Amino acid sequence: MATVSLITDDDASADVLDVFNEIRAVRGTNYVNNFWRALAHDPALLRATWDRLKTVMAPGALNPMVKEMLYVAVSTVNGCEYCVHSHTAAAKAKGMTDEMYGELLAVIGMASQTNALATGLQVPVDEIFEV
Amino acid sequence: MATVSLITDDDASADVLDVFNEIRAVRGTNYVNNFWRALAHDPALLRATWDRLKTVMAPGALNPMVKEMLYVAVSTVNGCEYCVHSHTAAAKAKGMTDEMYGELLAVIGMASQTNALATGLQVPVDEIFEV
Amino acid sequence: MATVSLITDDDASADVLDVFNEIRAVRGTNYVNNFWRALAHDPALLRATWDRLKTVMAPGALNPMVKEMLYVAVSTVNGCEYCVHSHTAAAKAKGMTDEMYGELLAVIGMASQTNALATGLQVPVDEIFEV
Amino acid sequence: MATVSLITDDDASADVLDVFNEIRAVRGTNYVNNFWRALAHDPALLRATWDRLKTVMAPGALNPMVKEMLYVAVSTVNGCEYCVHSHTAAAKAKGMTDEMYGELLAVIGMASQTNALATGLQVPVDEIFEV
Amino acid sequence: MATVSLITDDDASADVLDVFNEIRAVRGTNYVNNFWRALAHDPALLRATWDRLKTVMAPGALNPMVKEMLYVAVSTVNGCEYCVHSHTAAAKAKGMTDEMYGELLAVIGMASQTNALATGLQVPVDEIFEV
Amino acid sequence: MATVSLITDDDASADVLDVFNEIRAVRGTNYVNNFWRALAHDPALLRATWDRLKTVMAPGALNPMVKEMLYVAVSTVNGCEYCVHSHTAAAKAKGMTDEMYGELLAVIGMASQTNALATGLQVPVDEIFEV
């Protein structure tokens, strides 16, 4: 259960409904997922979060599938159950194959392991890595 | 300072030197960075870590530059100063442009923000995200 | 499910029941929440944790509502589902309005974002911030 | 050292200088801290981050000092050295007394401890905490 | 629900079944837990993870029970619900008494608290701790 | 630099000096490390933290060396540079050999890796792990 109720379309103010409808239009689906329905309790936070997400996740120098895989990596380390599920689904929808997914998990696991070793050993940064 | 001294080539056992030389060969440089020189205090751990890293980071369904960017994302969230430096340098060496780097940072920041919001709100996972 | 069973009043030793009854008296409710009932498997840990919590969360230079909001912030970043729920409920009970809650979430999200950016960029601390 | 050089006013593009000058105006100081000078490598990320920060940290239902203390709490748990320093300085500048600072640290420490205990015990959320 | 289905023995390829059977032999039980059944979607990742785990957790200078307690400590701080459950069960199976478990939790809680205090205060490392 | 100055014996109040002297007596050394000198800005927090630490780290069902290794594990995952250094030194002083240290690091690395994999895959907890 969320700490707040989920706002349905019927409960939504005009400002909230505007964001819900933009989400529908950008994603080409009628479904608005729970994250936005919870966030809708604060319409200004909903609007700011959606506007920024839309910009950040748009195609750019990195393609949307790679961005979703990065999102999965961050969400995994932050231990966000909701975000792991939603962005793994999004990455798959944008073309992530089973083989890519296996490699994504392998890199996340490897990095988490060497992060722990480098921190445990307090390894000093090599000068050649400095700008 | 590390919690252990850094093993130089002169101090290295034959087993350790074998790993150092493989690192040199695979990376095409004579430089062996501090992480491996600290880890060399435990030759078995050094060998296992290097063997696995070499496999995980090799070209596959994901290209090495994307893998390095994923590594930067994980290292940032884990707060590993050493790994942020070493893998940002590696990503740049493998072709990450300034524009890609800006987008990488933007995704890491965005994901960290919505991870916190989803966890703070304890948003329940939508059924459509379940397998 | 917890890794231990939850200790009911009927199962509780005299030492454990003393703590349960203090919790009831301080909070003005007959309800003792699951955290204490799980911790009760180790009466000394239960006593030490409750004694310290009671002191730390008492009114002081900061009021109890602000302390609960700080608790929510820490619990969110640590990813503690139980604590997010219990301390969000406590903050509301101590006067946190919907508007305050929205601002609390916005600050947690913003801080998590710039924390990630500062760590990803490894920004050096300005001298003016040093004591 | 940062992973990028710090942009001075002389190096700054017009867009970047606009943000630097807004920071100066809002904060009533000529000093622009390193975080913004590092972020300036990506002018769009700089602009978006500053615009959002300015809004989130403005006086609202919570006063700016409380917001800075929340920022310190989040930054501490995320292990962001830079942010701990900059926001502790900001909280002091906005009125945090030594006594408040001691209580802030005590709450952060207490919450981190019980977060660990609740997660280690996997305590189930009480129904009364559910919305 | 996992992000992938759990591979049963009937669905398993020969490579996967080999790992499952090694797990059974090493642990002296017919039961293969969900972690391995999820990981089995990537047979190479399954094989590499199992081979390494088997080596790391074998008796050595530290006994297996102590290793499991260390695993619980790491899993708790990383907020891994699955791993907290599986390794707490493993530690108990290898001899962890109720008293040891209470002390394990007390140390995890204490360390999390002083970690937060040392990071919040940004305490500089004493020279006597340096190698 | 810490966010506060370090309290010397000359600057210390009688209450603070009492704690410093207890630390000296319990540890059998005249040296009081920086953590306590920073914490001394809040005498009540100093006293409460020391009293609890002294109890938690005393010999019990687990020996002090094992407790220090658990402390290193927690501190590593929490990314606390100060605590990694101080508790690695303490573990060595209490008998941790090089071989034990290598195994400690290997377990921390392994656990961090499988924590990430289990969270990334969102593996459901097996019923047999439930109490």
Verbal overview:
- The structure is a homohexamer of 131-residue chains.
- Chain A has 131 residues and is mostly helical.
- Chain A has 6 helices and no strands.
- The first copy, chain A, is elongated, with a radius of gyration of 18 Å.
- The N and C termini of chain A lie far apart (47 Å).
- The mean pLDDT of chain A is 97.
- Chains A, B, C, D, E, F: InterPro entries: AhpD-like, AhpD_core, CMD-like.
Keywords:
131 residues; homohexamer; mainly alpha; AhpD-like; elongated; AhpD_core (chains A, B, C, D, E, F); 65% helix; 2 domains; 6 helices
Q: What would you say about this model in short?
A:
With 131 residues, chain A is an all-alpha fold. The first copy, chain A, is built from 6 helices and no strands.
Categorize the overall geometry of chain A.
elongated
Order of helices and strands of chain A: HHHHHH
- Find the count of extended strands of chain A (DSSP E, 2+ residues): 0
Multimer state: homohexamer
Radius of gyration of chain A in whole Å, from Cα? Answer: 18 Å
The helix content of chain A is 55-70%
The number of domains of chain A: 2
Which fold name corresponds to the CATH topology of the largest domain in chain A?
A: AhpD-like
Tell me the strand percentage band of chain A. under 5%
| Largest interface between protein chains, with number of residues from each side | A-B, 69 and 69 residues
Number of helical segments with 4 or more residues of chain A? 6
CATH superfamily of the largest domain in chain A: AhpD-like
Structural class designation of chain A:
mainly alpha
Largest sheet of chain A: none
Low-confidence stretches of chain A: none
Average predicted confidence as pLDDT of chain A: 97
CATH architecture title of the largest domain in chain A: Up-down Bundle
